[in-house]
Amino acid sequence: MVIQWHAAGGIALAILASAATIVVGAEIARAEYECLKSGKRTSLEPKMPRIIVTRHDFLQDRQGRTFADVLNDPAQPFDDVLDFFNDEDRQRRMEESEIHHDRPPLAGVVRELESRPAIDQFLASQHPRRTKRLRQAVGVLVRMMMERRGWRKTGRKGSLGVRATVPRRTATPGAYHNTGGLAFWFLRAERYEHHDGKPFPSVKERNQKSTSPLGART
């Protein structure tokens, strides 16, 4: 966030500067996306400046503010989470996960996220209620990142793994993990669509529009 202080209203100016940064970022993202759709580029390489979300930004968000318990808990590795996602390459990989792999943005980085020692240790050793709160906070942060890059939620979720069978209300640390799939700790994640639509049709869409004499392919 770009902060410009004014003696008569520093707080208001800071908020306005942050909003302007988000608007400019979204416009750049749209231009990048149009280049991809036109075939002039083959990927959303990071010409767009990386998105930076701070603790303050997170707590100003409509959902983020409901996770003050996570930010105020010194045992929660939320600073590690912020550091992880405030990275240009990872933000590009999240977009490419939707564009090229038809998976949630989190799928593009989740294995690397789970390999971070502080994050993995917390998810393996703390009460399931606290680890669930962290996973949910990660989802909010991903949503903030994607929205600022020109995307919106579809209302659907994509699978990241197959959950181990766990007795109801189990309080054993580390019990809620996956036995298969892409991720070990994260079960599912939000799907997103770009405000300007898809650059490429899905296989299902192409099949439905097939002009083959035999009709739609099976």
Quick tags:
218 residues; mainly alpha; two-stranded antiparallel sheet; 47% helix
Strands, helices and their partners?
Layout: H1 10-38, H2 55-60, H3 68-72, H4 78-85, H5 88-101, H6 110-114, H7 117-125, H8 128-148, E1 151-159, E2 161-163, E3 178-181, E4 188-194, H9 203-208
Antiparallel strand pairs: 1-4, 2-3
Shape by Cα distribution: globular
Q: N- to C-terminal separation? A: 50 Å
How many domains, in number, for the residues? 1
Q: Strand arrangement, largest sheet? A: 1-4
Q: In percent terms, what proportion of residues is strand? A: 5-15%
Question: What is the count of β-strands?
Answer: 4
- The helix/strand class is mainly alpha
- Helix tally equals 9
Mean pLDDT comes to: 84
What is the CA-based Rg, rounded? 20 Å
Order of helices and strands: HHHHHHHHEEEEH
Report the major sheet.
Answer: 2 strands, antiparallel
Low-confidence stretches: 1-21, 42-46
Q: Helix amount, in percent? A: 40-55%
Structure description:
This protein has 9 helices and 4 strands, in the order ααααααααββββα. Strands 1-4 form a two-stranded antiparallel ribbon. A two-stranded antiparallel ribbon has the order 2-3. The chain is 47% helix and 11% strand. The longest helix is centred in the first third of the chain and has 29 residues, at 10-38. Helix 4 (78-85) packs parallel to helix 8 (128-148). It has one domain (49-208). It is globular. The chain has 218 residues and is mainly α.
